[in-house]
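Possible regression after last week's pipeline update?

I re-ran a chain I had predicted before the update to compare outputs. Posting the input and the new output here so someone can diff against the archived version. Not blocking, just want to make sure nothing changed silently.
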Amino acid sequence: MTVADLIACQLRRAGVRALFGVPGGGSNLDLIAAAGRADLPFVLTATETAAAIAALAQAEITGRPGACLTTLGPGAASAVNGVACAHLDRAPLIVFTDSQSSAGGVAFEHQRLDHAALMAPITKSSEALTADNALQVLTRALHQATDERPGPVHVDCPGNVAAASTPAHGATLVGFVQHSLLPADRERLDGLLRRARKPLIIAGLGARRPEVASAIRALASRQHVPAMVTYKAKGVVADEDPWFAGVFTNATIEESILDESDLLIGIGLDPVELIPRAWKYRQPIVYCGAWRVPDDHVPFELQVLLPIAETAAVLSAGLTKSHWDARRLGAHVEEQRRRVRVSGDGFTAQQVVEAAASKLAPSAGRVTIDAGAHMFPATVLWPVREPNGMLISNGLSTMGFALPAAIGAALLDRERPVVALTGDGGLLMCAGELLTAVREKVRVITIVFNDASLSLIEIKQQARELPPSGVALGAVDWVALAGSVGMPGWTARDEAELKGAIDHAVAHDGPTLIDAKIDRSNYGATLRAIRG
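New output (post-update):
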């Protein structure tokens, strides 16, 4: 067995569904060939960053590692943004980089970067393969990517190693960290639960597995405990659930509900998800999750490090039925939505989101959302029913996320369309992935919020009374651009045109694009309504 064959087989066994990347001429070629022999699809992307993001999306949906490869030097450097996204969004990812051959004892300088140093701040570990250590390195990498706090792991594969023979035995045994609740901590938790009359759950990115979401929904229903969700946890409690309490980001719009509570329970809540604003709430907050999180931003009184499904049983036993009124809670949530529905001078992002959601949310597999001003109405107004039904870059909040994430998601489910909501600035950063979508024949409906500006930055300039400098993008004919790679597209200037375009897109068996001409005049008011 060659090292490349071993890699492909181990990835398949670990549940990896595809290998994404932009190959070079060294070990990458052996990995791609081996993946073909192992029936592991290789997906060529236009950029290395998109490869990492597509793999990240698959990891979030499946709960298994994603995988991508890059060539040496510029390929590795180009992947950094996608790897950083996996790092801050806590997604298990295996990143394979090619490197100069280790044979001959000559250290060539051409295209040579210290990949381990480059990846060190954004990965959990970095190791180099040899023919002798391949199984041990892969075993550790797959374990480290998923154990405790998930994240990316880097594996360097020298050009002469992938084709070398390797022993398929002798893997290093690895153990999982097991936590238990100390008696003193259990006593503190029981006391907090016993005194709570209006507890409030805040579900975060660590609560997205189906069994965890089911446990949270059952707890909320049984004990009448409202549950807010972060962007990443949208769908853990469905928007239409009577105990759904809205979206939590540490902003102003959710304050009215939090101010009523007397105990906050952060289930899978990682502070990386929250906007960088001082924590202002005085009631105690308890963290329940699979890994320890920093407590300098959010002052967790107690961290319960147990499997979340097990923790839900502890919470259910300790809580009495709450004093919350479901009808009043529903009114709070509807008031949040009302505040986000800011009118404008023309066709607004809010109108696009709600019109698209009315047509697509019931049948679409998932929605992916790019960073930008359109994100605010999208995260509040697009209904989600299942965990990972909405994919978004939150910890890193990178532009250029929605389209490659949608491609990764659509490759897992070719029956239902995936909707990518992206600004024109974000799509410009990954426009080459339109061709990737066409080549892979995935059912991705890309809706471009076309306002010819980096609108979120423009809003911040306005808030500081600065001139709008360096934010005008200029005109892009998105329908023509999509058509140039064989993708049908339509332009929408109002709700009727948008709904007609969606009908055409749904009927098409493949990727499509809708260019929604957006009035951005209400973005500032929208941001103030949410964040104050």
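Follow-up from reviewer: compared with the archived run. The chain is about 40% helix and 15% strand. Marking as no regression found.
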